[in-house]
Predict the 3D structure of the following.
Amino acid sequence: MPISTRRPFRRPRHVPATDYEVVIVGAGAAGLSAALLLGRCRRRVLLCDGGRPRNHFSPAVHGFLSRDGIKPHELLRIGHEQLASYPTVERRENCVSQASKDPETGIFHLTLDSGRAVTTRKIILATGVTDILPPIDGMHELWGRGVLHCPYCHGFEVCDQPVAVYGTNKSVAGFALLISRWSKDVAVCTDGWTGLSEHARHRLKRHHIILHEQPISQLIGRRNRQLHRINFQDGTSLARHALFIHPEQQHRSPLAEQLGCRLLQRSGAVWVDKRIQTSVSGVYAAGDITPAAQQALIAAAEGAQAAISCNEQLTREECT
Ligand SMILES: Cc1cc2nc3c(=O)[nH]c(=O)nc-3n(C[C@H](O)[C@H](O)[C@H](O)COP(=O)(O)OP(=O)(O)OC[C@H]3O[C@@H](n4cnc5c(N)ncnc54)[C@H](O)[C@@H]3O)c2cc1C
């Protein structure tokens, strides 16, 4: 059947004229999924992406229903390919650098890094996060292969192997106990931090998890970027197949702050309600920037929810 390019209806007079109905910022799993649903609603959408997804260091995306083990860029390529069927979705390889809301009209004004200014009735922020790795020799080189952040994504690939868990605060104990479901040979490396409580030390010992508190000097990898050993500053070393770490994170983009969206104090995540709307009416957020678990499938689901919420709110405004 030929694809309809007709608009479903005319803009009612009381609805403000804007370049787009929805601008989606970020075309990772969350943004692409939002664009797909809005394209199917025949909404006028601009989808902007100015970089690479968070997991581009990784060889594979795991745990994504029907796509388990797919390369990160292949997942996105399929997403873009399928989006091409929806003519009301325009895609740009641009960063959105500025965003503001006109308090009188409720219209959003965005500026792209090309200098182009656009207006829209709704925004979906799907801009993701950046991981800030500790400055240890070898950490960046092995990130995504020998240095891993998530056992749900990569635990199965290293199960029953000797692994280590890195952490310099009390959450390291819980993280190590979680990892011990995948391997019985777990070591904790606190890189010079010695603040673990007696209770936490006992729990680790009870589960045969060995504690290494001395500072790390270097991670030695194999040619395929898997971890080989952890060298410590005191001259000792530990053979390990992988190191798990929960790195610090920061937002990829300052747009949520610029728009005045409420951020959660502890995690810095963008607060959203059950419709995935932020504290600013008309601004939705999806994917890793929200408090939900950081998984590609969950990001895609949040993107879909944001799209549905946007479309329903736009419809309410149109059908008074
Ligand atoms: C090493 C590694 C491995 C992982 N492995 C898995 C796995 O196996 N399975 C799994 O489910 N999850 C995995 N994850 C988590 C997964 O990558 C994220 O949950 C997922 O990418 C989140 O999707 P997102 O759309 O929110 O963000 P992203 O995929 O990070 O996409 C955000 C996009 O927004 C763009 N952007 C940012 N700011 C702007 C701006 N101002 N203007 C325009 N564009 C902008 C960025 O360029 C980026 O393309 C892994 C993560 C890492 C770090």
